[in-house]
Amino acid sequence: HSSNHQHQHPLHHHHHDLGAVCGSGALPLDGDATCRSDIEYLAASQKDNSTTQPTPEERRQCPHGADCDYQHKHAWTHSNQCFTSAKSNLEFCAFTDTSFANGRGTSFVMPARRADYIATSPAFTDPEVVAGVNQDLVRTIPAVYEMREFPGKGMGLVAAKLIRRGDLIMANTVSLVIDYRAFEDLPKEEYQQLQAFAVDNLPPAHRDAIMRLSTHFASDLPHIARVDKIAATNAFDIEPDADDAEQDHGFFVVFPEIARMNHDCRPNADYYFDHATLTQYIHATRDIAVGEEITLSYINPVMTRAARLRKLQRNWGFECACSACTQERALTEASDKRIRQINKLKDDLTSWAPGSRASPAMAELFVSLHQQERLESAMYEAYAFAAAEYNGVGEPWTAIKYARLAVDWGIPIVGPKDRDVLDMEALAEDPWGHWSWMLRSKKRFGPPEEKGEGAGDDE
Ligand SMILES: C[S@@+](CC[C@H](N)C(=O)[O-])C[C@H]1O[C@@H](n2cnc3c(N)ncnc32)[C@H](O)[C@@H]1O
To answer: Record's superkingdom (predicted)?
Structure first.
C-alpha cells in the first residue's frame, strides 16, 4: 500500500529510554493498565464529564487494563457497517463522528474497541485542543500558502508570504483513519466498501474535499475504486499511540489539505503527528520565499538517488524531477557518497560499545554532511549526536550548544513532546546529570565491562 514516509527516530543510543514507561517490549494485546501514563489517564478523566469514565485509581485496579479503557463508549454518529475477517476473526466497522473538530468530522475503519479507545483522546473529549486547527474548510486566519497547478505534478502549494524556518504552515485533524489490519485481513471488496462508507458519512464539505484529491491521473473510476485510489495516493503512515493496547498495528490516514503537498527529496517542510490532538502538523524546515513550492519528502530522504527514484516510482508511480534528482552527474555522485558516509557514521555514533570510533570530531563531520546535503529535517538528529559526543568526553559547554540546537531544530520536525527533544532539553539544563556525561571516556578508559547481560552496546 502506498503511503508517505514516517519519521523514524534512529537516535536510540539512550541508556534510559524516556519513552517507554513499561519497558521496551511490546505490550500483550490486552494491555496492562499499570503500564500506562498517569498523565494521560488524568487528562482523559478530567476532560470528560461523563460519569462512565473510570478515575485513574479505578483504571489502575482493572484486572484487564485494556477493557477498563473501553468502558467509555463513544457516541458515534454512524457505525452500522461492519465485516468480520475470516482470517483474524476481528470485526472491522466504519465509524464516523460528524461533530469532531467543530463539525469537520472524522471517520475510522477499525475494530470497535480501538475506535472507542482513540475517542478517549483529548481531541475528542476537549474540543478546545483542536480549536484553530484545520484552517482550510472554514478559514479564520489568512493562509500562508496558495494552491496551484504544477506541470507534471498536478496541484501543489506555494508560499503566499515569506515563511521562516520553524513556522507552522498548516495542521489537520485526522480525517479518514484506516487500521492496517482492515486492509490486510478483509477481502478487498469488503475493505473498499468500508473505506467508501467511511468517506461518504463525513459532513459534505469534508467528504467533497477528500473526493477532489488526486488519483494520480486515473480517471473514470467507479466511486468505491476512486476512494481506494485516493487513499492510496494521499495517505500517511501513522504510528499508534504508545498507550494503545494494539500499538503494534499502524494506521494510514488521509488529511485533505496536507495531501496537496508534492514530494521533493530536499523538501522545505516536514510533518509530525500528535496523538493528544489527533493532528498532523506541518512546519517549515527552512525559510521559504514567496512563490516557492512548499514540499514534503514522501520517503526517507537519506537514500542514494537511485534508491529514492525506485521507491517513489514503485509507491507513487512518478519520476522524481526534483533538483536533487536532476542535477548533473558529478554532483549526484558527490551527493550519493555523502549519503553513504552519513549512513556509515550513524552506526558508529549510535554505538556506545567501548570499541566505537565515535568522537566529537566524527559528530562534527556528521553535522556538516547534513548541511552539505540540505537535510534540514534530519539536522536535529545530527545536533543531538554532537551534543551526546561532546558530553560523552566531558565538554559540557559545547554539549549544551548542540543540545539547544537539537531542541530548536527538533521541535518543528518531531514536536515538543518527542523523546529525543525532551532528552536534549534535559542535557541542555544539566549535562552533568545526563546519561551521556563522560560515557565515552568511561567506556574507553574505565574498568573492563562485565561480560553478558547489560554490557556494551544497548542496541
Ligand atoms: C499526495 S498527492 C500530492 C498532491 C497532488 N499533486 C494533487 O494534485 O493533489 C501525491 C501525488 O502527487 C503527484 N506528485 C507529488 N509529488 C510529485 C513530484 N515530485 N513529481 C511528480 N508528481 C508528483 C503524484 O501524482 C502523486 O501520486
So the answer is: Eukaryota
